[in-house]
Amino acid sequence: MLRKAGLYAAAALAFSGGALAQDAPRINDAQIAHIAYTAGQIDVEAAKQALAKSSNDTVRAFAEEMVRDHAAVNDQALGLLKKLGVTPEANPTSAALSEQAAQTSARLAALSGAAFDKAYVDNEIAYHRTVNTALSGTLIPGASNAELKSLLETGLTLFQEHQTHAEHLARQLR
């Protein structure tokens, strides 16, 4: 079921990329900023849920890393947007991500113990894979502003490390 949630998020991001490649309007920097910020905030909230539910020290340390890193990147993004005078623009992709995150959170809330830990980490793998694909395939190439593009590239490097960390953690939990 959680893999299905990750696939829905992947579909939302992939659809935005596929639409960009065909005849949908080009995504703009304000929309890209909103998608990236939303994706980061979703992971902060998921990590906070893990901190509230998990008693596994390794899972908790990973969740603390997610809160710290995603909040820091989002803070940098907000600072850049303020500097540039850009207001993030809500769009169907960020709305779909938020809706799916709420469903995933509800599913995770029903779990506890090792089942929660495994489901949370599996979701983190799928989510980071999806976001990393969207960053590299859609958001970074679509960004017009060089500073925004640079911030997204920095985020991608960090989030690829998160995916690797989550994959390693998943192997430990099995």
Topology:
Layout: H1 2-21, H2 29-53, H3 57-84, H4 92-109, H5 113-142, H6 146-173
Mean pLDDT level: 88
Uncertain spans, ≥5 residues at pLDDT below 50?
1-23
CATH superfamily: Ferritin, core subunit, four-helix bundle
Q: Considering DSSP H and I runs of 4 or more, what fraction of the residues is helical?
A: over 70%
Give, in order, the helices and strands.
Answer: HHHHHH
Written overview of the protein:
With 174 residues, the chain is mostly helical. The chain has a single domain, classed as Ferritin, core subunit, four-helix bundle (Ferritin). The protein contains six helices and no strands. Helix 1 packs antiparallel against helix 4, helix 2 runs antiparallel to helix 5 and helix 3 runs antiparallel to helix 6. It starts with a helix and ends with a helix.
